[in-house]
Structures are given as C-alpha cells and as structure tokens.
Amino acid sequence: MIVQNAIICNKCGELIISKHRHDYVECKCGDCVVDGGQEYLRRVYKPDASYGDLSWSIEDEIYKECAAAVEHAIDTNRNKFGIANAVLRALRMRDRVIAEGEHRVMAAYQDELMVVEPDGTVNRYKKVM
Ligand SMILES: [Zn+2]
C-alpha cells in the first residue's frame, strides 16, 4: 500500500503530495506533477526538470492491521494518544518500530547475532548456553 505519494521539486523546492487517485498536484513553478494518491505513482515533469521522490509504501497486510487498530481504538473511545499507541503497537508487532534504548537484530546465523545498539554501533554476539 502506498502510504505517501510525494515529491519535492528541485527548482522551486515545493513538496507536493497526491492524496487520492485523481489528485493531480502541480508544484508552484509548474515543472513537476504528482498524481495517483494511494493507487499508483504517476509523475509528469518537464524534460529538464528534476525532483526528489519522498514516496513510500508498506505491505498491504500491515497497513490493514494499522487501520484495524485505529478502528478498534476509536470504537473503544481512545483519545489521540490511545489511537497513536494502537498504531505503534500494531507496527511494533511487525518489528517496524523499535522502542527507545532497544537494540535491533540485523542478522542471525546459527548461534551468532549481529545487532545495532541504541547508540548506532554494531556488535556481534554469540549465544552462550
Ligand atoms: Zn517546482
């Protein structure tokens, strides 16, 4: 699922976002266009134009789990923080969010782990049992 369909024009610097399928959005200098919303990534630009693409996607299943988490939070009268927590929990269940101070496992092979520590350093650990 496309979460954000957006580019930034390198001439005028405007960030333009297409929010739905037929949302055709042109930057203020007219060099670049985004279109397609969450359905497809369409770009229209002048031959000498350039832009940076800020679009990103996530697996449909994870997207649906986040939407279901929002729906459940609303149905159970959570406030904006409760809704944010529900989405973060859904993403964390899929290892898409790491908690503050938590390390992230980059690779695991046999009895060894390669880990990115909270400070950004990389370490290798061997399981001792
Ligand atoms: Zn522009």
What do you see in this structure?
This protein has 129 residues and is an alpha+beta fold. It has 3 domains: 2-57, no CATH class; 60-97; 101-129, no CATH class. 23% of the residues lie in helices and 32% in strands. The chain contains 2 helices and 11 strands; from the N terminus they run ββββββββααβββ. The chain has helices at 60-75, 80-93, and strands at residues 2-4, 6-9, 15-17, 25-26, 32-35, 42-45, 51-53, 56-57, 104-109, 112-116, 122-126. A 3-stranded antiparallel sheet has the order 3-2-7, with no helix packed on it. A hairpin with a 6-residue loop joins β5 (32-35) and β6 (42-45). The protein is extended, with a radius of gyration of 20 Å. The model has no long low-confidence stretch (mean pLDDT 94).
Q: What fraction strand?
A: 25-35%
What's the domain count?
A: 3
DSSP strand count: 11
Assembly state here?
single chain
First-last Cα distance = 42 Å
Evaluate the radius of gyration.
20 Å
**Unreliable sequence segments:** none
H/E series: EEEEEEEEHHEEE
- State the shape: extended
Provide the residue-averaged pLDDT. 94
Write the layout of secondary structure elements.
Layout: E1 2-4, E2 6-9, E3 15-17, E4 25-26, E5 32-35, E6 42-45, E7 51-53, E8 56-57, H1 60-75, H2 80-93, E9 104-109, E10 112-116, E11 122-126
Antiparallel strand pairs: 1-8, 2-3, 2-7, 4-5, 5-6, 9-10, 10-11
Bound molecules: zinc ion (ZN).
The site of zinc ion has 9 residues, from loops.
